[in-house]
Amino acid sequence: MQLIRMFSVLFLAIGGLACGQPHVHYEHKVVLRDSVNKIAPGPSDPQIQFAPLPSAVHSVAVDPTLGYFVGNLGGGVYWVTDGSYSNMFMVSTHGVIVVDAPPTIGHKMLYAIGNTTRLPVTHLVYSHLHADHIGAASLFNASHPIIIAHAETHDRLAMLSPLDPLRPLPNVTFQNNYTVSVGNQTLELSYHGPNHTPGNLFMYASAQRVAVLVDVVFPGWAPFTELGVADFVPSLIAAHDVLLTFDFDVLVAGHVGQLGTKHDVLQQRKYLEDLRDSCAVAIKGIMMDEIEPTVAANPGNAWATAKPVFRVASQICADNTTSRWLGVLGAVDVFAFENAYRMVNALLIEYNVPGPFSVV
């Protein structure tokens, strides 16, 4: 009881975000700790071999000489990928609209556009603030494009702009909705709250039935580490339902070398819900003898008291979830522990599923 009280006090000290939120109940199958694949939680052996990629992974072939692939989505819309990152541009009668400028693609983006049209880039849209998606934006400075982003993206970049000229500040911002119209092309931008990060935009080319949402869905693959470094997990999961309200055939997702469909959105939502439910069961099922050795070895060290709870719950959740998704999504085992760890944190402080940190 004293140990549980210690956890409760610690949770109240570091988990104030959960105060006042309704308790969320999850039903899930019983965890079988000895019948699942074990996922290494720590630094990996450089020679470790992960599970083979399933058939859901069907990345386009990137010409090694060019280092990029350009796909024609019809109606003047093109997507560009280097196999790891992807973005989009639209060719209109009066100029080019570009969405994002990943530095891994870098100058290749200029080549891709230049080999498609002689028209200048007149508009550049930032999906969100992260440098891995807009860190090459300065390459378009020569054409002086209008840079468009959510107001939250502008405000955060403004704190960094003296240090990062590679991401010029947007000169057009908005709060809820904005329509980019250039010549005969239209791109609708909308904001539905934080998910991957505050300011992350939903983008939609209705005439071509193409949607763009970056760092939320990873078509054919499990999410990147820590659920794609998610800012707010409940809204990350809800973003899937928002995306499905758009009438699209093709999704440009910002990562991996393949396009997405509504099936990919539904599949990943199912994976995230399974991960959430599995982690909730793991949190509630932690046994004191699993964490007592660490507590006993570190008297008075509150951080050392909390760490085994996060570690044990994340490991159990990772093991069980991975056993169900291997062969369904690509690389589900690679960041299994990190994704479970982010979900455990979300359950504790965002969903208010406290487990051993319950009110006394």
UniProtKB/TrEMBL annotation:
UniProt KW keywords: Signal
Protein's UniProt name: Beta-lactamase-like protein
Superkingdom per UniProt: Eukaryota
InterPro entries in alphabetical order: Metallo-B-lactamas, NDM-1-like, RibonucZ/Hydroxyglut_hydro
Pfam families, alphabetized: Lactamase_B
Domain Metallo-beta-lactamase: 85-255
Xref: Gene3D superfamilies: Ribonuclease Z/Hydroxyacylglutathione hydrolase-like (3.60.15.10)
